[in-house]
Amino acid sequence: MKNNLLLIGAALSLSSCSMLLGPSGPTSVDVTVIGVNDFHGNLLPTSFRVPDPADRTKTLTVQAGGVEAIGGILAEARKANPNTIFVGVGDMTGASPLISGLLRDEPTINALNSLGMAVNVVGNHEFDYGFAELQRYQKGGCNSNDAAKACKFNNTFEGAKFTYIASNVLDEKTGQPVLPAYKIVQVGNAKVAFVGAVLKDTPTVVTPAGVAGLKFEDEVKSINAAIPTIKRMGADAIVALVHQGGTSGDAFDIVNCKTLSGPIVDIAKTLDPAVSAIMTGHTHRGYNCLVAGPDGKDRIVMQGDALGHLLQRIDMTVDTRANRVTAIKASNVVVDAAKTPKDAAMTALVQKAKDLTDPIARTVIATLGVEQITRAAGPNGESLLGRVIADSQLAAAAPASKGGAVIAFMNPGGIRADLPVNVPNPSKQVTYGDAFTVQPFGNILTVITLTGAQIKAALEQQFDNPSAGTNRLLQVSKGFTYTWDNAKAKGDKVSEIKLNGQAIDPAASYRVVLNNFLADGGDGFTTFAQGTNRLGGDLDIDAFRAYLTSTTVTPDTTERIKRLN
Asked: pLDDT tens for residues 360-391?
């Protein structure tokens, strides 16, 4: 398959085509659609790994994303083709870093407005603060359920100039849609319709308060039901924005891959053939694949990683006389912050947000019992900071009203720094910024029910993970212990699993708290996705901060995981 690594600086060219003229203008129009998914308020660039063009067995780390660079890419695309549409594929806000999250994500909404976003399908995180707050994001105003953060970026909030859509979100009482199913965007002489759906399992990954009064219908059924109306409105092309995704065995820059798996595949197989391409989100995986629709014809199904690292790009030729797409191609564009001209308006916006949030980032929130708690793992796979985070999550989810958890698991890859990063630290103080640096993802704590047998199965998935010969050891909460034998075969390494000194019963049920990434089977822990009775809770950073604030934390040095051989 053809490699198509579009680093910044590469030409953003459109394929040439003949322009057929009709009575009111051209009937063949080149249209560019650029989309971002799972942006999560990342106004600033972050680290991202891309294939090394000189040796594809290796990767390079670049600083990618950020609204300054995204603005630069959009400017180049619009210069090359004025018929360019900027869209969102969900989770533009929510689980955001401090620079946006502390200002109720209003800087992000303002940035997307300035960047000319036309439409955004809601993701699950758009419901983090409840539907009333989502309506405020659309309409504007300061009547927020978090007055301490709202209208602090500006003293007024104009709301989103783009349209939030979702065909499958209904009022629980009336059964009526609460958002538009689609939006038709006029570019040149062409009408391009964007029809959207958020994953039907949104209630399982959002706090109950966030989706109170709403129900989420099947994605395919809801989108397909909107297609006849879209056709009657004279749409020349239809693109689906679906906040649900999958994973691929191919890198994001491989074009027309055939290795896609996950929930989006079944969706793509059954969506109306009138949909020319499906732009996806939610799984934070970059891919550019083909999936056969119900008519047997392949169509594009793509996703652009997350946090603005990649932009999804579709270039298509639209015949406005026949109301159809005659040519289409797709690519994932790397938003290399070092190689892209910056958008001056976005630079000013970012600086304003930093000026407002930096003082909060420097606020002291706790005094530790030691200068630093490190994330460095010992031979058994445990780290001192991993224990603290697991304990903080168990403390947050142990009350019956929060799920009644008795065990917590934390993925080591989610621990991003030592606490604090720098030593010496003779004051032993840590700031909110220190805590946020450790837990920046804004994951939602999720309580699930697992049997003892499922817990053992999940623990066995730590080995040869992510590849043969490597291990990914979960951090566990106080009171939970087990032994693993490095000499034994995979699938039989774990033994002596206990909770508060009592052996775990394979047939018994246990309430377990973990972040939503793990709960969805992330990092190869697919057993967790089998958990039942899911309940969303606090953000991980909020649980971590509350735990640090509640006491003088000294890390527990008692071994919870015992390694043999």
From this structure: 888 999 999 999 999 999 999 999 999 999 99
